[in-house]
Amino acid sequence: MRIPLPKIRELAEALTSLFSRAYTNRYPFEKVVPPDGFRGCPRFHEDDCIGCLACYEVCPARAIAYEDDREKLTRTLTHRPDLCIFCQQCERACLTEKGIMLGKEFELAVTERKTNTSQSRKALVLCENCGAVIGCLDHLKFLAKKVGTLLYTNPTLLLARHDELQLLEKERGQASPHPRAGHLRFLCPSCRREMILKEQF
Ligand code: SF4
Ligand code: SF4
Fold first, then answer.
1. 66 CA distance to ligand 1 centroid (A)?
2. What is the pTM of this model?
3. How far is the CA of 201 from the centre of ligand 1 (A)?
4. Residue 158 pLDDT
5. Residues 102/88, Cβ–Cβ less than 8 Å
6. Taking all residues of the chain, what is their mean pLDDT, rounded to a whole number?
7. In angstroms, rounded to a whole number, what is the distance separating the alpha carbons of residues 83 and 45?
8. Which of 73, 177, 187, 197 stands the most exposed, by the fewest C-beta atoms within 10 Å?
9. Binding site membership of 78 for ligand 2 (Cβ less than 6 Å)
């Protein structure tokens, strides 16, 4: 019987591949390094996060949650890989560009869905008049630096900047004779407006 030519070629290819190195990776026995630009699991980088919630707002899969603790004055952001679709919107929206970043991590199988999370915990600032949440202290400090000299038009940002310069405790320890010293408090926009209107009328 005569073997057709294509079959001989296939046989040669089979023998060649049998004695040559495998083209594919021997995963999981060999470590796989994903290429640059690979969208792996996002992780919070607490030192670069300011707790602004931009990532929470843009996440289409609701994979980022947050909780404000008024007793301990903390805001905790949590990222859940089991809900994440690795779209990178959180990284793109991040104000500091480094607060949450996608890495190359892709081995995310766990037996408990809510484990393997990453978190960022930030100090929270409440309105000193009504107790409403103003935001995270690091966020206020970030904004205070961004607005430059306009900082002096906003006492809340001014206080945040003074806190960074370690002037706040000193100032607050002194009774100020200034008639508008009451302005120098962390106040939410509503209380700030009310205070200014009461003073003017
Ligand atoms: S990568 Fe997309 S789905 Fe995952 S946390 Fe970021 S915004 Fe949400
Ligand atoms: S700084 Fe970035 S990671 Fe932190 S809350 Fe804002 S957007 Fe999210």
1. 14
2. 0.82
3. 49
4. 87
5. yes
6. 88
7. 19
8. 177
9. no
Nearest CA to ligand 1 atom 6: 90
Query: Residue 50: CB within 6 Å of ligand 1?
Result: no
Residue 104 Cα, ligand 1 centroid: separation in angstroms?
14
User: What is the percentage of the chain residues whose pLDDT exceeds 90?
Assistant: 59
Nearest CA to ligand 2 atom 4: 49
The predicted structure's pLDDT at residue 45: 97
CA of 83, closest atom in ligand 1: 3
SS3 assignment, position 160:
helix
pLDDT, tens digit (0-9, with 9 covering 90-100), for 12-42: 999 998 899 888 888 889 889 999 999 999 9
Q: Which tokens go with 122?
A: 């930030």
Is the CB of residue 54 below 6 angstroms from any atom belonging to ligand 2?
yes
Backbone angles phi, psi at 109, to 5 degrees: -70, 125
Domains (range + CATH), the chain: 42-186 (3.30.70.20)
CA distance 98 to 81: 18
Encode pLDDT of 99-143 as tens digits. Answer: 999 999 999 999 998 889 999 999 999 999 899 999 999 999 999
* Predicted pLDDT of residue 63: 97
Instruction: Return the closest-CA partner of residue 39 out of 104, 85, 90, 94.
Output: 104
